[in-house]
Design a protein that fits this description.
Blueprint: E1 2-7, E2 13-19, E3 22-29, H1 35-50, E4 57-65, H2 69-86, E5 90-94, H3 95-100, E6 109-117, E7 120-127, E8 134-135, E9 140-143, H4 144-150, E10 156-159, H5 163-170, E11 176-178, H6 181-184, H7 188-200, H8 219-232
Parallel strand pairs: 1-4, 4-5, 6-10, 10-11
Antiparallel strand pairs: 1-2, 2-3, 6-7, 7-8, 7-9
Helix pairs in contact: 1-2
Domain Gcp-like: 33-124
GO cellular component, one term: cytosol
GO molecular function: peptidase activity
């Protein structure tokens, strides 16, 4: 089965094409243009170079969050549109779990973190494994101080676009390692691998049921609710 996977949940954008567990091709860009400008051209070029058409895709996968609200929306909307157009199922996976996928042999805890601003991150903890990261905590929005308290005494590998923020906050208190830049961010190949696992466990969805995972309300909605509450006081 051909799997097309995308990730636009952070500062990078990536697309991957896999045949079951085998990676056929992957794109990865970190440029000033918005993901809405780069994603679909990257997808079309990837398929062209691999000699695969949209009609041959059996599953669409996306890093459905948490992460940048705009980025997550772009990725989810793109996958929903492609899946609807070609009549294929889709699956959303955790962007944090996908970021942890790059590090199967780390001897310690892998902490995946996305910058949520205001000294907060979206984070999850994993134990590294060749079979894929084993989850130690759910994806959650958390203050840096609270996340520090969740870390044990084991070495900690920091990944994700919030990794450097966490490293600067934790390095005096914990044995932290900052993942190399090229392995720090989510790659769509990991999204495809997690998507295949979800598909095999019966978690695939029709496109109209695929939803972004924000963990908290977008800032505009939070501000609107705050203003509404003030008016009602």
């Amino acid at each position: 089965m051909n799997i097309l996977a995308v990730d636009t949940s952070s500062v990078t954008a990536s697309a991957a094409l896999c045949e079951d567990d085998r990676l056929l091709g992957e794109t990865y860009v970190r440029v000033p243009q918005t993901h809405s400008e780069t994603l679909m051209p990257s997808v079309c070029e990837l398929l062209r170079r691999c000699g695969v058409t949209f009609s041959e895709i059996g599953l669409f996968a996306v890093a459905a969050g948490p992460g940048s609200f705009t980025g997550v929306r772009i990725g989810v909307a793109a996958v929903k549109g492609m899946a609807m157009a070609w009549g294929a199922p889709c699956v959303g996976v955790s962007a944090l779990e996908a970021a942890a996928w790059n590090h199967p042999f780390f001897a310690g805890t892998v902490c995946a973190a996305m910058d949520a601003r205001r000294r907060q991150v979206y984070a999850a903890l994993f134990a590294a494994s060749p079979a894929g990261p084993a989850r130690l905590s759910p994806d959650h929005a958390v203050a840096l101080e609270e996340l520090s308290a969740e870390l044990g005494k084991e070495p900690v590998l920091l990944v994700g676009d919030g990794a450097e923020l966490c490293y600067n906050a934790f390095k005096e208190e914990h044995s932290c390692v900052l993942a190399p830049d090229r392995l720090r961010f989510t790659h769509a190949g990991a999204v495809a691998a997690l998507g295949l696992r979800a598909f095999r466990s019966g978690q695939a969805l029709p496109p109209d049921r695929l939803l972004p995972v924000y963990l908290r309300l977008p800032q505009a909605e939070r501000e609107l609710r705050a203003r509404t509450a003030q008016k009602n006081d």
